Amino acid sequence: MPWLYFTLKPRHRAWAEAWQKEVQDRLRELETVEIAEGCFISPEAHLFAEPGRPIRIVGPGVSIAANTFVHGPVVLEAGVSLNARVSLDGGAAGIHIGEGSRIATGATLYAFDHGLAPDRSVRSQPVTSRGIVLGKDVWVGANAGITDGVRLGDHSVVGMGAVVTRDVPPWAIVAGVPARVIGDRRDRRRSGAPDPSWPPSDDSGD
What we know:
flat; transferase; 8-stranded mixed β-sheet; single chain; repeat; Hexapep_transf_CS; Trimer_LpxA-like_sf; 6-stranded parallel β-sheet; mainly beta
């Protein structure tokens, strides 16, 4: 439960930060990993970043929960959350996840694909990679899948179990297999609760 780490009371903060330093230093020794200050990585997370396929955690507040699988090249911006059993494989072109985006349990993002030519076996098909890009403040629901070459616009939402095979516009809500647009976040009722990080600093409109 990595969110608990960021809400620790001061009396627990010292030992927790020292523990996380040990976990993160061990990853830096073993893998080509860059980790910003103020992040949480479960010791049960599986990060693989050989030379040429780095994992770059470039901002604070990133959390990576237990039993995640992350294979570079991957870039995670500030505040990104990878929940339990999330699977990311950057292929050759990589995965880039923007600030504040949330990836729910069991979601899969694979930035590569195999050929389907009928004159050769599946195992001998060529592999291609175009990359995956998620904008900021994106929410990917539990057990959703994102295929290679897809770009998700800022503030978009992917429903639980959806399979996204094409680009998603900013603010769109998509669901289904294959995923299609079913709504727009800007049409939803406002929560009324204050949020110091809102409105977004870009010019994406309201």
